[in-house]
Every structure is written in structure tokens, then in C-alpha cells.
């Protein structure tokens, strides 16, 4: 079913090998996370979750329940009100400045609207994923090391876009754009991928292809891939674990098989929408 091969990931700049006894395990631990945009009106209410296995975890829940807020708190696009977010044991909530930037580089982000630079080529979009690793002078000159360029070619192979390297992003279809977005996230050699509705702008077939690619990446990179999504059937099909949120709290955390109609009613409320 999958078209995504992984040999390209074994290049010289490939990520470290999976955790061993001497390395810290790759884990994200969210502990008692609270976010209130307005004082006294928390959007996230004491959310605790552990992610440590290399699998796709789908976060589902009704609109406005705090799924995007949760993901944005993890990479600190949104400032948490209380709680801890431990990436390999380091609390991201306490980091500032260069330490925060370094931690952010370890988290790959994938967005619904791709967030590509439209007037740049596919290759240039990938290489911008490395800007955070370069000194200011190199970045200003866009003088990318050969290892980065080699890695970008490898990743374009992984996402099936080698023939599109010199195309401008604005000439690509939605599915192709999302592949570029995923490859760009992988350029950072992330320990974790957070994807906020990566398939919501795509047709059903392309959505399946993108989820297939994300599942393959979780395996080949040995990292958790956490995906906010609205399509429950797609979540069941591709996620090893589903987190159901309602009213800013986790109400289900388990395998797709345990997500029955009663639980879906609890997550989404009512039942008029169910067939
Ligand atoms: N920057 C912000 N300032 C104030 N309130 C916000 C902000 N961002 C989100 N909210 C509010 O927080 C709540 C949760 O929003 P969030 O975007 O996290 O939900 P979501 O589960 O991702 O929804 P959707 O499925 O529609 O994407 C909503 O009530 C929203 O209006
Ligand atoms: Mg959202």
C-alpha cells in the first residue's frame, strides 16, 4: 500500500539510531497541562498524556475542544498557563531564548495549510527547514552545507517528489504541498512530529496517501507522530492509539478498537450526526 521508501534516510546526516540503554528514550510527557486564553476560562483543563512509542497517535474531538491549543502548547507557539511538557525529560515550559529554539528544532510541525513559501522552489522550501541550524552569516547567504542538500534529495525521494525539486511551491497540488511540508519537517531530524489536521484540505485518496506516509515515517524514523484530525475513520485506520478530547479534557485514550459508539457520543456529544 505504501509508496514511501526509507533507504534515503540512511544518509550521512540521518538521525541518531533508535534509543539504546545509553541514550535517553525519545518521549514526550504532558503533565497537568492547563491553558486559559482568558483568566478563569481554561480551554485545556488538566491534560496529561505520554508519548513514547514510534506510532501514529490521532487526537480527535469536536471543534473548539483544544486540539490545536494542545499541539501549539507543546512547541510553545502558545504559552501554557500551568503544567509541564517534558521532551526527553526537559521541561519545555521552562525554556527561554536559545534553549527554547534548540528544543523547538527537535519538534517537526506539519500544518493543514502547509505553510510553504509559495515563491520558493520545493528544494528551497526543504532547505529552509535547516536555517535554524546555521549561523546567521550562512543563513543570510543561504549557503547550505552539501550534507543538507544531500539530505533534502533523500527526503524528496522518501516523499516521492524528486522530479519536483525545482518547481515552485505555488505550482503544486495540495497533496504535493503536504509532502513538501512533511519533508521539510523531517529536514530538522525531529524527535517528534506534530501535525495539525494535515489532511483536512485534501481529497479522500490523497488523505490516505498522506496518512500512509506519516505512518511510514513514524516507523522508519522511530518517532511518535501526533496528528489532530476530524476524520474518525481515517484515525481508526492509521493510528495505533486514539486520544479523544471533549471540553478541554481527555476522555478516551486507547486503541481504535475500544472507540465504540458510546465513546464517540461522549466525545462529540449527541447522536443525531451518527448513522
Ligand atoms: N489565540 C486565541 N485567543 C483566544 N482564544 C483562543 C485562541 N486560540 C484558540 N482559542 C479558543 O480556544 C478554544 C480551543 O481552540 P482550538 O483551536 O485549540 O480548538 P480545536 O480543537 O483545534 O478546534 P478545531 O477542530 O476547530 O480546529 C476555542 O474556544 C477557541 O476559540
Ligand atoms: Mg484545531
Write the layout of secondary structure elements.
Layout: E1 28-35, E2 44-51, E3 56-60, H1 67-74, E4 82-87, E5 90-91, H2 97-105, E6 107-111, H3 122-128, H4 136-141, H5 146-158, H6 174-187, E7 192-196, H7 204-221, E8 225-228, H8 232-238, E9 241-246, E10 249-254, H9 261-268
Parallel strand pairs: 3-8, 3-9, 6-7, 7-8
Antiparallel strand pairs: 1-2, 1-4, 4-5, 9-10
Helix pairs in contact: 3-6, 5-6, 6-7
The structure holds adenosine-5'-triphosphate and magnesium ion (MG).
3D architecture notes:
The chain is an alpha/beta fold and 275 residues long. 33% of the residues lie in helices and 20% in strands. The chain contains 9 helices and 10 strands. The protein has helices spanning 67-74, 97-105, 122-128, 136-141, 146-158, 174-187, 204-221, 232-238, 261-268; strands spanning 28-35, 44-51, 56-60, 82-87, 90-91, 107-111, 192-196, 225-228, 241-246, 249-254. The strands form 2 sheets. The chain has a 6-stranded mixed beta sheet, with helices on both faces. Strands 2-1-4-5 form a 4-stranded antiparallel beta sheet, with helices on one face. A hairpin with a 2-residue loop joins strand 9 (241-246) and strand 10. Helix 5 packs across helix 6 (174-187) and helix 6 packs parallel to helix 7 (204-221). The longest helix is centred in the last third of the chain and has 18 residues, at 204-221. It is globular.
Amino acid at each position: 500500500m505504501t509508496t514511501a521508501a526509507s533507504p534515503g534516510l540512511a544518509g550521512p546526516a540521518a538521525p541518531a539510531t533508535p534509543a539504546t540503554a545509553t541514550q535517553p528514550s525519545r518521549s514526550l510527557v504532558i503533565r497537568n497541562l492547563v491553558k486559559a486564553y482568558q483568566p478563569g476560562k481554561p480551554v485545556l483543563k488538566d491534560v496529561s498524556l505520554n508519548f513514547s512509542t514510534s506510532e501514529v497517535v490521532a487526537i480527535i474531538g469536536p471543534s473548539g475542544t483544544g486540539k490545536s491549543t494542545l499541539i501549539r502548547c507543546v512547541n510553545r507557539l502558545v504559552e501554557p498557563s500551568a503544567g509541564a511538557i517534558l521532551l526527553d525529560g526537559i521541561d519545555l515550559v521552562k525554556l527561554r531564548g536559545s534553549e527554547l529554539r534548540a528544543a523547538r528544532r527537535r519538534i517537526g510541525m506539519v500544518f493543514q495549510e502547509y505553510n510553504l513559501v509559495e515563491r520558493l522552489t520545493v528544494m528551497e522550501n526543504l532547505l529552509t527547514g535547516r536555517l535554524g541550524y546555521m549561523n546567521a552569516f550562512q543563513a543570510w547567504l543561504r549557503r547550505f552545507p552539501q550534507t543538507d542538500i544531500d539530505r533534502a534529495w533523500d527526503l524528496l525521494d522518501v516523499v516521492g517528489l524528486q522530479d519536483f525539486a525545482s518547481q515552485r511551491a505555488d505550482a503544486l497540488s495540495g497533496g504535493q504541498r503536504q509532502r513538501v511540508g512533511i519533508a521539510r519537517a523531517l529536514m530538522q531530524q525531529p524527535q517528534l512530529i506534530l501535525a495539525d489536521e494535515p489532511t483536512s484540505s485534501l481529497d479522500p485518496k490523497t488523505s490516505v496517501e498522506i496518512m500512509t506516509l506519516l505512518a511510514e515515517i513514524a516507523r522508519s524514523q522511530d518517532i511518535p507522530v501526533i496528528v489532530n484530525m476530524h476524520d474518525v475513520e481515517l484515525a481508526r485506520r492509521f493510528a495505533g492509539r486514539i486520544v479523544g478530547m471533549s471540553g478541554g479534557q481527555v476522555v478516551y485514550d486507547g486503541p481504535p478498537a475500544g472507540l465504540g459508539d458510546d465513546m464517540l457520543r461522549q466525545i462529540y456529544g449527541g447522536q443525531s450526526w451518527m448513522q
